[in-house]
Amino acid sequence: MVEYRTDVGAAPAVRNLRLAGTPETAAPLVVGSYHLNYASTTTRLAEAEWLTTWNDKWERRGNRRIRLPALLGGDNNSYPEPGADVDPALPVLEHIQDLPHRAHRSYQGPDSTRLMDTRPDNVLRTAGLEDVARYLAVRKGIGSAVTSTVDAYKTHGPQARIDRIYASEQLLPAVVDVEVVDMKGLSDHDTVLLRLDRDVLADILNNPITQEAA
């Protein structure tokens, strides 16, 4: 009998939500939860590329189109690109004792050198989805935002910030704080909690990016 894992990746759960108290003319907010593939860097890259489409949603309003901002969070099973000084350092491949895990968290780069997998983070940020914790650390000086979300393991390497929330750039003024909630005894991953300024968020949704409809 062959047993297959069911947690290696799944389609994201995405909904268009309206902020209570805003008029019907306000833009809805695209909110999504995702889980990138555990074992395949190739699959994770493709999944991240598909996630970028949620930052490219428009809604027609008469002769105009409004852009729907996105808020996406999940288990990335990969690392953020270095950029915030206080971010946990990338693991050293040779220090990861579990050989399958080396393969799961790295990909073959130039000259057959294996590199730690940061490609999903790069793809999402290239598409205008900012890592909100990185934004707070780099732009606001809130270093606690980039706290690790998984503990260090002898087999899997040092602590890392695997779980992240990404927001469309136009939402960043509403970002107030990111907190990592300790989930010991409940999960091997901690929970990332994002706080937004409601008044600023409402203003962003009430004045969305628009363009002339084709």
Can you tell me about this structure?
- By secondary structure, the chain is of the alpha+beta class.
- The chain has a single domain (10-212), classed as Deoxyribonuclease I, Chain A, CATH 3.60.10.
- 20% of the residues lie in helices and 29% in strands.
- The chain has helices spanning 41-51, 99-104, 119-126, 132-139, 198-206; strands at residues 10-17, 29-35, 57-61, 64-68, 70-75, 106-108, 114-116, 129-131, 163-168, 175-181, 191-196, 210-212.
- Helix 1 (41-51) runs parallel beside helix 3.
- It starts with 9 loop residues before the first strand and ends with a strand.
Summarize the structure.
With 214 residues, the protein is α+β, with helices and mostly antiparallel strands. Helix content is 20%, strand content 29%. It has one domain (10-212): Deoxyribonuclease I, Chain A (4-Layer Sandwich), CATH 3.60.10.
Q: Could you tell me the radius of gyration in angstroms?
A: 18 Å
- Estimate the global geometry from the Cα principal axes: globular
Beta-strand percent range: 25-35%
- Tally of alpha and pi helices: 5
Give the name of the CATH architecture.
Answer: 4-Layer Sandwich
- Determine the N-to-C terminus distance: 56 Å
Structural domains: how many:
1
H-E string: EEHEEEHEEHEHEEEHE
Uncertain residue ranges: 1-6
Structure classification: alpha+beta
Q: Compute the average pLDDT.
A: 92
Helix percentage: 10-25%
Query: What do we call the CATH topology?
Result: Deoxyribonuclease I, Chain A
The side-by-side strand order for the widest beta sheet comes to 1-2-5-9-8
